[in-house]
Amino acid sequence: MNFDLTEEQQMLQETVGQLLANECPVTRLREVFDSDTGFDEALWKSMAELGILGLNVPEDFGGAGLETLDLAVVAETMGYHAAPGPFLGHALAIEAIVRGGSDAQKQKWLPALASGERVGAVSIADAEGGWASNQWKIESGESISGEQAFATGGHQADLYVVGLAGSRLGVVEAEASGVSRERVDGADLTRRLVALQFNQTPCELLADDPEVARRLHDVGCVLLAADAFGGSARLLEMSVEYAKTREQFGVKIGHFQALKHQLSSMALDVEPGRGLYWYAAYAQDHVKDESERIAAVAKAHITDRYMDVARNAVEAHGGIGFTWECDVQIWFKRAMFDRAFLGHPGEHRRRQAEMAGW
Amino acid sequence: MDLNYGTEMEDFRQEVAQFLDENWPLKGEEKDWPFEKAAAVFRERAIERGYLYRSIPKQYGGSEQPPDVLKGQVIREEFGKRWAPLEARGIGTMMLVPTLLERGTEWQKEKFVRPTITGEITWCQGYSEPGSGSDLASLKTRGELIDGEWMINGQKIWTSGAHLADYMFCLVRTEPDAQKHAGISYLLIDMKQPGIDVRPLRMMTGSADFNEVFLNDVRTPEDWIVGKRGEGWLVSRTTLKYERNSIGAAQQTGASFAGLVKLAKETKIAGRPAIEDETIRERLAVLEGYVKAHQYSGYRQLTKDSKREDAGIINMMMKLFSTEIGHQTAKLSMDLIGDEGLLSAGGAELGQRSSSAQGWIGQYMYSLGIAIAGGTANIQRNVIAERGLGLPRDAAADRSSGK
Asked: For chain B, how long is the longest CA-to-CA vector?
């Protein structure tokens, strides 16, 4: 029994954390947050050099060939630093191609994704609502037409893994004919979204296997949970720090029991999520019969806690907490994203109940 | 990450299982022995094999094994599967024995450890007083050394099992002029003597597990003190060092949750099983998120303990986290039993779980007792905030401790 990260995983987390602390401190983060694109090309290149953009790409195709837990510990660190950019969708697009691509397709896309030369993204939210693969409506084929909401990657994405009717997935190049993308007025400016329209757009279908879509969805849930854990831990730290410095009534406000209790409740919302997201990530590769359900549990629970922590963090900062200038809002909006992307907690709890046979 | 115990542990598991096959339940003519007698004999054999009382030296009746958290866990799992008697529970085994082993004198260990772990003698804990609950160090029960004997006067409260106990380990103010925490000593007291008056306190559930204990000119020998005079506060903080059962609480919340799901399947709302009700399903799913988080936090603690590493702030949270899950479980059970919520808690005892409505009502009430006993939820929140998050200590508490 060793329910802990390996030394390599801890090192990976530290290295990524250092990279983000150096290259994207909050001052830089704010610039990217307020920029038009929400994309920091230099940061993306550094991530590529570190090898984290191809973490889940098999070694044969230029990646590190690691598992979901490795990806998740990186996602936690990204969440902690509110790292801007298309990492989430990129990792998920890779996951789909690794699982559902033919050798030729893998050869065509994976090396360029692993090196970060091309940015991958996913478009799996049906325009009329629905993240689940059985809600996707665009007819699958070598040419597709239709609309989708909330694709990842902003205007940076080079290729999309698109959800199609019949739980199929296809790959569409952003430059392909008939693709138009429109900026979505999203809350989370660290992870930009677009709405896509396809008009007789060429599409390469991935394997006709519903497991691929399922895997994409589950790994997505795990990475969102990991991001949420990291982000909520950061908000707790920020709130504690504020309580130790801000003075009122002649003392640091951290002396007041009401605030202490609020902060310890926040801690109680944060810390127990660590083992849950670890296990959910581990299960994706090692506990097949639990993987789908525990991903749903982790996504629903931890992203919900993140939102609670974010609301409390705003309150714990008082008036300043409600301003654009206060960094809390950046994480608050990541919490909104983590909670809503791939379906809100209520949907996952419905699946959780169904899968338990309740 | 590897959730298997590894070949070494699986071999050990086999060994434990084989021992249990041969020894529990007892065989031959021992088969019909009453439980207490059978359990005592079984425990002796298990101690011989090194399965119970592993952190207690052989000379005091333990099996003196090198600390190994995983072995401890395997033993609990295998014994649990077959309902084989584990170490006798009770405050003497759990709190006094580790304290004596760490801080007691040779004769104290010789005299008290063995009969305590065999259950021959039982203990109660004399800590709380009517005026000293969360602020325990303000306690006023006085101990004066007169002619080679401690003379003790005062009152203790919430003393579980005092009506049955042979002895009490007790915090007493022996240095009235010293600063608050430095004025306390840790004394052992014979409960079977005049001057001790035990009055049961009836709990809101209707049963009476705990008591008020009045001490009037109670005597105890001068050397029945653990640690030195004025060291009682520190002595009382001695905790079990080895083989903490890190996942016991999580297993309990898991079992409670499973019971709740069962209840939801068996109960009807408007003629349909409650488990089909959307609101109930949602609430169960929410609760399960916490239960799972608790479970994996327990696994993580177990791993950290086995590597002798510190799991960090989670160690301070587990009690409060269990308590909050317990509240949610209890509340949902009340909503499930519906009209039967008009009934009393029946004869439910602490820790007893029952699928009957009255059992759940008992648990509904006991979940509050658990939130208060051993440090109220609000005190737990202070601990998390001050020791875990590093927030400044409460100004009023600082003043009263003379800092």
From this structure: 75
Same domain, A17 and A75: yes
Q: Is residue A191 located within the same domain as residue A230?
A: no
Domain extent for A43: 7-88+100-114
CA dihedral A84, A88, A89, A95 (to 10 degrees): 150
Claim to verify: residue A187 and residue A219 sit in the same structural domain: no
- Among B288, B296, B313, whose Cβ lies nearest the Cβ of A279? B296
| A15, A129: one domain | no
CA angle A198, A203, A209 (to 5 degrees): 120
Question: Class assignment of domain B123-236?
Answer: mainly beta
- Please write the tens of the pLDDT for every residue from B307-341: 888 888 998 899 899 999 999 999 999 999 988 88
Average pLDDT over residues A33-37: 96
Strand partners, A179: A198
Catalytic residues of B: 243
Residues A260 and A340 in one domain: yes
Which residue, A283, A285, A302, is CA-closest to A342?
Answer: A302
Q: Which of A209, A233, A258 is the last residue of a domain?
A: A209
Query: Omega into B98 within 30° of 0, i.e. cis?
Result: no
* Domain boundary, last residue among A114, A149, A178: A114
Within a domain: A195: yes
For chain B positions 249-308, those within 8 Å of chain A (CB to CB) are 261, 264-265, 275, 281-282, 284-286, 288-290, 292-300, 302-304, 306-307
Give B230-262 pLDDT, tens digit per residue. 999 999 987 655 456 667 788 888 889 999 999
Q: How far is A306 from chain B (nearest CA, A)?
A: 13
ipTM value, please give it: 0.97
Domain count across chain A: 3
Q: Are strands B142-146 and A125-126 parallel, antiparallel or unpaired?
A: unpaired
Q: Is residue B393 helix, strand or coil?
A: coil
Cβ separation of A275 and B281 shorter than 8 Å? no
Separation of alpha carbons A89 and A87, rounded Å: 6
**In-domain check, residue A94:** no
Q: What is the CATH number of the domain that holds A223?
A: 1.20.140.10
Give A260-309 pLDDT, tens digit per residue: 999 999 999 999 999 999 999 999 999 999 999 999 999 999 999 999 99
3-class secondary structure, B155: strand
**Which architecture does CATH list for B248-400?**
Up-down Bundle (1.20)
CA-nearest of B81, B14, B67, B88 to B251 is: B81
- At A185, list the tokens: 């007025």
* Pair A199, A295 in one domain: no
Task: Identify whether the C-beta of residue B31 lies closer than 8 Å to the C-beta of residue B25.
Answer: yes
For residue A166, the tally of other CB atoms under 10 A from its CB is: 12
Q: Which of residues 57-86 of A touch B (CB under 8 A)?
A: 69
